[in-house]
Amino acid sequence: MKITIETHSPAETIALGERIGALLRGGEVIAYRGGLGAGKTTITRGISVGLGLGDEVTSPTFALVNEYAGEKLTLYHFDMYRITSAEDLETCGFYDFMNERSVIAAEWSENIADELPDDAIYIDIARVSDEVREITITGDERFEALGD
Length: 148
Ligand SMILES: Nc1ncnc2c1ncn2[C@@H]1O[C@H](COP(=O)(O)OP(=O)(O)O)[C@@H](O)[C@H]1O
Ligand SMILES: [Mg+2]
Description:
Blueprint: E1 2-7, H1 10-23, E2 29-33, H2 40-50, E3 65-69, E4 74-79, H3 86-91, H4 94-97, E5 102-107, E6 121-127, E7 133-138
Parallel strand pairs: 2-5, 2-6, 4-5
Antiparallel strand pairs: 1-7, 3-4, 6-7
C-alpha cells in the first residue's frame, strides 16, 4: 500500500514521523529516498519519539550510524551517502543490526537499493516549497491508518 501526505512545517513532519514510529514493532527497515534537506533526519526525529526513544536525533552524516537504544527496541539511523558497495554495507554493521528488536532507518537508501529487504518500508520525501513536503509511504496495511 502507498499513501501520500503533505506536511507544511518541520513540526508537522515530526508529528507524522511520530505516528509512523508508533506503528513499528521491530524488525523493520525504513528506506528514505529524497535529496539533501528533504527532511529525512527531521522525520526520523519523529519516528524516534513515536518509538519512545526521545527527540535527540541528529544527522548520522559523520558517524555513519547513530544508535538510540530503548528497553524494547533500538533505532539505528544510517547515512548511506558514502556507502557504495555491498562490502561497505557489511562493514558498517547494517546486517548485524537487522533483527526483531531493532528498527533501521536509512538515509540515502538509493545507494543500497539492491541490498534492501523485500519488505522494506519506503519513505519518499519530495520538496514542494521551502516549508512544504510531499511524503509518500510505501509499506504494508498498517500504514493505511496514517490516512485517517
Ligand atoms: N515540512 C517540512 N518537513 C521537514 N523539514 C522541513 C519542512 N519545511 C522545512 N523544513 C526544513 O528542511 C530541512 C530538512 O533537513 P533534514 O531533516 O536534515 O533533511 P535531510 O536529512 O533529508 O537532509 C530542515 O532545515 C527543516 O527545518
Ligand atoms: Mg539527514
